[in-house]
Amino acid sequence: PADYEKQVDALLQSPRFGERWGRHWLDVARYAESNGRESNLTFPHAWRYRDYVIDAVNADVPYDRFIQEQVAGDLLPAKDEAERARLLVATGFLALGAKGLNEQNKAQFAADVADEQLDTVTRAVLASSIACARCHDHKTDPFSMEDYYGLVGIFKSTQTFYGNWIDSENNNHGHLIRLPELPGQTIAGRALPPARVKQLRADLARLNAEEQAQKDYIAKAQAEKRDLSGEFNKLLGNSLRILWTRGGVEGALEAVDEQGRPLPLCMGVKDAQVVDSPLYERGELAQPREVIPRRFPALYASGLGVPKDQSGRLELARWLTSRQNPLTARVMVNRLWRHLFGKGLVRTMDDFGSTGEAPSHPELLDYLALRFMEGGWSVKRILKEMVMSETYRRSSQPVRAPEGSGGQPSVDPDNRLLAHANPRRLDAEVIRDSMLAVSGLLDTTRRPGSLVAELEGQSVSLIGFNDKLPKDLDGSHRRSIYLPVIRDHLPDVLEQFDLANPSLVTGDRDVTNVPLQALYLLNGPFVQEMAAALAGRIGPGPNRVERAFELCFNRRPDAREAALAEAFLRTAPGGDATQVLTAFCQSLLASAEFRFVD
């Protein structure tokens, strides 16, 4: 119907569209604002990549261009400084991964970062785990170690900027990319008084002088053949003090200009010294074999090479999005299908290899991939085609068995052939945002920057000691996409309902039903706050039950539900009607009907 299409078009044009569908890509991009692992240090500028994704989805940037910007935005031409800044921010995709920051072997650290980037790109875009060939030829898919090391050379020829400075938890300074300064630009960070900047520069000079003096002392002792073994602990302690103190000073100075004003910075990548990687026996750096020229997997791109004077990321980005690549379009339309229908046509979203599941509708997958490419790689256009289909608009009521069948069970008990729609539980963010919406507290404005960018220091390993973080990280009424995403310490309201693990490429979240969810809905401070706000919104009037049902379930209560609700509301202890009304509202927010799309 025309009204249905008009509503679809309105939703596609809403600025909320990018926040909702951008979140799906952030799952794939393993978006987080801290490192996690043994050294959980903050990524205070990760929010720029989050906003880039939201804006790109809203603008319907063609998917092939979207991938090229994230893999090689720094190498693409830009028409102006604003475009240059956007493209640099896009490469944050490669910088967001968890890193072994306490690794002391620089070569091992570089190899692990390149491996994580290769794994992310191939899983996200191709749904193929080429990183499995790091130590041996892939056991099930046709990827060799030569394929792996040909690709990994591309990422080893890339410098990653992630922004963590050296301290007692970090042996690898990450630096940041300075963006062009633009009018109206959001800059997250703390300003420093000019006197403090001057003091920091003096401190840096003093530390450098101390380090040089110690080196001179050791060199003189060695020349004089003096035994320094008795001073070893003292010299080592002094070296560590200088190293860790200087790291913090350098980190502070990199974030501000000469006057102490915070600079526009971002995570991302740039081309570095071009290198080809040796093939390492069993993946061990101590066992190098022949050098493998940078190239793409032979299965897909035999004969294609990369320039000698560049990393090859630009060529990689173009190869990934070539119409001759058999996977990129199929993987993406499968991701879109999953978010509309609950399951992908290929249910193993991030594995299109031999260990993955075959598609339920292979011809449909091919058709959608072709339509996607022919439509200019427009995500909005292919989504509209899907939601305008008769299949998407089907009821969730199962099709009844034919007359005379004796009530035989369906030949498709899992409903893989989509005879009807599948009821689905809402994503964690939608549950929280829906509670905010029905309570009347939802703030739809974009949060400038991120709470993480405002924290003292860079470590969140001891998160309870940072009083700027709300207890459950949910001190905001903005949409959930703007909550801080701290690895190993996610917001309670999201973690309880299966938020994607931000350290992994996740195309298909788990959907669990566990007691902790019920306990959170009963006792969670956020749920109680939303219930009180909803009670205040509907008020004590005679239509309070109908109003509550309409807000929460988009329907009126039936006669039995209305009678039960009114009977409950008359049980107010000591005449405290507000307390009982709040409890009634909380029961609606905690109900299965509120959490499921049926």
Describe the structure.
With 598 residues, the chain is mostly helical. It is built from 23 helices and 8 strands. The strands form 4 sheets. Strands 1-4 form a two-stranded antiparallel ribbon. Strands 2-3 form a two-stranded antiparallel sheet. A hairpin with a 7-residue loop joins strand 5 and strand 6. The model has no long low-confidence stretch (mean pLDDT 93).
Gist?
This protein is mostly helical.
Helical run tally: 23
Instruction: Decide which structural class fits the backbone.
Output: mainly alpha
Low-confidence stretches: none
Order of strands, main sheet, comes to 1-4
Largest sheet: 2 strands, antiparallel
The proportion of residues in beta strands is under 5%
How far apart the termini lie comes to 21 Å
According to DSSP, the number of beta strands is 8
Net shape: globular
Portion of residues within helices: 40-55%
Question: Overall pLDDT, averaged?
Answer: 93
Rg (C-alpha, Å): 28 Å
